[in-house]
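Team,

Forwarding the record for the chain on the shared tracking sheet. I've put the sequence and predicted structure together so nobody has to dig through attachments.
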Amino acid sequence: MITSINELDLSKKYSYAEYLTWQFADRIELLGGYIRQMSAPNRNHQKILRNIVRPINNFFYKSPCQLFIAPFDVRLLDKEKSLRADKDIYTVVQPDLCVICDKSKLDDRGCIGSPDFIVEILSPNNSKTDLKDKFKLYEECGVLEYWIIYPSDKIIHKFLLENGHYQLKDVYSPTDDAYPTLFPTLLIQLTDVFEDE
């Protein structure tokens, strides 16, 4: 049993089966088998997350689609492998927010397979990961809609998966009303999301 992240070799590739044996407080993700340490989100990040979750949670109340917020493990499968054995999974992410409509992807440990909709909120410590690594990962694994929130600029980039590649479909400003393409009747008022205290 691994009880400290210091016991791990950060240059080594690990599987989800190994991830399950780790018992330490540090938040991590596995990207292609490699450990990515996650810092605690700052207050502004949490405020934006709280504010965007509110209308989404209300919209999906008693719906077949379900909303989950971090920390919530999403195991993404390699396109070349359909196996679901823990030892064959090398990517485990914790999106800030995700919506899953296929109940067969859910189990007691989280989600196995791609969510339909993911929202990530950038922070100084994760901007490279979310803008490059996770962008490519979500695209390759078939996440249908991906939003990236830029807290300092108070804007959102909305990407849709088309022919296997993300296309930028909208850039929302802080006074816009935003709508996920997958859920066009879900209104998200960004004046509420980015409200000043």
